[in-house]
Amino acid sequence: MTDVEEYITDFEGEQKALMEFFHRLLKKELNLADKIRFRIPFYYQKSWICYLNPLKDGQIELAFLRGNELSDAQQLLSFNGRKQIAGIAFHNVADIPVEKILEIIHEALLLDKTIPYKSKRKK
Prior knowledge:
Blueprint: H1 3-8, H2 13-29, E1 33-37, E2 40-44, E3 48-54, E4 60-64, E5 86-90, H3 98-114
Antiparallel strand pairs: 1-2, 2-3, 3-4, 4-5
């Protein structure tokens, strides 16, 4: 059992179901690497692509680290006051528009593959 899978076992109900769904999609189907960073699961290819953020209201947010560079043609991403990271929060698995989520993930993967991430932090 990986660290991320062990992390997911600590959740219950819909939050656990959502985390299991996204973990299976990102890790098993899209072959992304996973790692616990900042106490939550991150998924990456060349650089970090997205993470699963458990929210206090019982939702799970699928957040994209380069959200500001994504087209958001699906009009699902929300920045919630953040400049770079954009995400989508879900209450249950039945609410997930799988095709639209896959489009966003594939765009994020293409971005990661073709345009190297450059930190905007001041040195």
